[in-house]
From TrEMBL:
Annotated protein name in UniProt: Crp/Fnr family transcriptional regulator
Phylogenetic lineage: Bacteria, Bacillati, Bacillota, Bacilli, Lactobacillales
InterPro entries from the UniProt entry: cNMP-bd_dom, cNMP-bd_dom_sf, RmlC-like_jellyroll
Species this protein is from: Fundicoccus culcitae
Record-linked Pfam families: cNMP_binding
Span of domain Cyclic nucleotide-binding: 14-56
SUPFAM superfamilies noted in UniProt: cAMP-binding domain-like (SSF51206)
Length: 191
């Protein structure tokens, strides 16, 4: 069993027997930086849970501009839920911005795993609910905040992203240009 998977499973309220059994059935893969996990327009067959690394959700708009929508880091689920659950082409791509170790769930094997390990249903639900709450809070604060407030919120809630992802991707995620982000960072550091 991958050591990061064991560490994760041991944090959950599972018996040692369940940990050992799940460790044999759950798939953990290493992905190098730059790996595209899902291309915009493909139907998502996999969902990912980040044990280590960073996955970026992004899309190219009608004008050919790439927009970063989200970053998923340790202990977060990275997936395009609509594509995965509804079996429709994804509006987004997922790619690794760092070397990443991911727990990989397979749409076609999901029901079998849930039947074999009923505790996975509750665990999955908890993580999905947490993701939904975070997404709603992020969207609400993004809509009502100025660019500077968005940056300061990021510094407060996800400071690790500032060092882990390229500035142009971070700027896109914050809804501004890289130049604007640079100016905001400079002003904030002077205050």
């Amino acid at each position: 069993m991958h050591p990061l998977l064991r560490e994760f499973l041991e944090q959950l309220a599972l018996s040692q027997d369940d940990i050992d059994a799940m460790g044999n059935d759950l798939v953990v893969e290493d992905f190098p930086k730059g790996t595209v996990l899902l291309e915009q327009g493909e139907v998502s067959n996999d969902c990912y849970f980040v044990l280590k690394g960073c996955v970026r959700q992004h899309a190219v708009d009608f004008d050919g501009k790439e927009n970063t929508v989200n970053f998923f880091t340790e202990m977060q689920t990275a997936m395009v839920y609509k594509s995965y659950s509804k079996r429709v082409p994804s509006e987004y791509s997922l790619s690794c911005t760092e070397d990443s170790v991911l727990l990989v769930g397979d749409f076609f094997n999901e029901a079998v795993m849930f039947e074999k390990y009923p505790s996975l249903v509750g665990i999955t639900r908890e993580f999905m609910e947490e993701n939904l709450m975070t997404e709603q809070e992020d969207k609400a604060s993004f809509v009502t905040a100025s660019p500077k407030e968005r940056y300061l919120n990021l510094v407060k809630t996800r400071p690790e992203l500032i060092e882990r992802v390229p500035q142009h991707q971070l700027a896109s995620y914050l809804g501004m240009t890289a130049e604007s982000l640079s100016r905001i960072k400079k002003r904030v550091s002077q205050d």
